[in-house]
Amino acid sequence: MSTSIRVQPIRRLTLGTIIATLLAPAINVMAAEQECSNRGALAPMYCDANNDLVADTPSDSSKLLDPDTLIFAYTPVEDPAIYADIWEPFIEHLAEETGKDVRFFAVQSNSAEIEAMRSNRIHIAGFSTGPTPFAVNLAGAVPFAIMGSEDGNFGYTLQVYTRKDSGIDELKDLEGKRVAHTSPTSNSGNQAPRALFPKEGIVPGEDYEVVYSGSHDQSMLGVVAGDYDAAPVASEVVDRMADRGLYDPEEVKIVFESKRFPTTSYTHAHNLKPELAEKIKEAFMSFDMQGTALGEEFTGVTQFVPISYKEDWEVIRDIQEANGISYTRENIE
Fold first, then answer.
1. CB-based contact 93:145 (threshold 8 Å)
2. 177: left (phi over 0), alpha (psi -120 to 50) or beta
3. To the nearest whole number, what is the mean pLDDT of the chain?
4. Beta-bridge partners for 303
5. What are the b/e assignments for 282-307, b being 16+ CB within 10 Å?
């Protein structure tokens, strides 16, 4: 018995078919972009139809996240293990208020933290001042809270420290010196000095050598050790270091201090289910820091207070614009 095999005719691909196939992904992206009435500086995957400068919640319910476990990350610090313990009372409160398991995730750099939120590996995060606009525009972070006092005030200053025996008494004395900046995205550790110091007669990178230390902690410890002649740092960070006995305030002095800036922003991912996002916000606002390890670590603040990224980060965006900063992944670190 013979078996016949039916051969399907080969479909001939025309040049037009090949081009259409190759262009399909780009056409889909273009179609998605056309659906967005306003994007501003946000990455193409986000939209800002209400013009509040942060990514809108997706209208497609299939794109919303409602994870069983919420991952919380805090801005990179010298010793993440210490901060995991400090944040424990709040994490317990957050778990109770949301009904979710909540875990602390230690990040090693600003770029790692931003990438983790962009790829949905963290859902709630504290981003330091300078990296916040990067997180907003590249990762869809939605800032909603900041640490503040009972009257709702918040903020910190840029301070320039040097050793008392350095012979440096004002910014102009930094000429020819070796000065520690923290990282390119840091506000008080790099961007604000580059925007503000020229008005004081000194240009970073031209009048003095800029050396990136990696963190405010390292900058301050390097000044104390004599590794750097001076360093611009965030007042809140060095205050906490002094409280922990990490350096002797009697060995250093401040030669410049700026006006106040906003501190670390607390954010949630833009694509969380709205009901979950609201529970997270309520958990922050209802948490009483007083008497907790968190309250002891962050002196001068007692609670989380609501913020507007559009309004409260305007001065930071202005500084970054003055520095020619664009919100790209290449510019994070």
1. no
2. beta
3. 89
4. 148
5. ebbeebebeebbbbebbeebbbbbeb
Beta bridge partners of 269: 141
| Residue of 110, 32, 29, 31 whose CA lies nearest to 73 | 110
Going across the sheet that includes 303-306, the strands are 101-106, 69-74, 124-127, 265-269, 141-148, 303-306
Q: What is the DSSP letter of 289?
A: -
- What is the pTM for the complete model shown? 0.73
Structure tokens at 227: 């590794």
Q: Strand pairing partners for 147?
A: 304
Summarised one tens digit per residue, pLDDT across range 173-194 is: 999 999 999 999 899 999 999 9
Please give the Cα distance from 271 to 291 (Å, whole number).
34
Cα distances (angstroms) measured from residue 143 to each of 15, 134, 162:
49, 12, 34
* Strand 69-74 relative to strand 265-269, pairing: unpaired
Distance (Å, whole) CA 226 – CA 251: 11
Tens-place pLDDT, residues 197-239: 999 999 999 999 999 999 999 999 999 999 999 999 999 899 9
DSSP state of 330: G
Helix 88-98 to helix 274-286 angle (10° resolution) is: 140
* Euclidean distance between CA atoms 179 and 166, whole angstroms: 12
- State the Cα–Cα distance between residues 217 and 222, nearest whole angstrom: 8
Residue with tokens 């016949």: 4
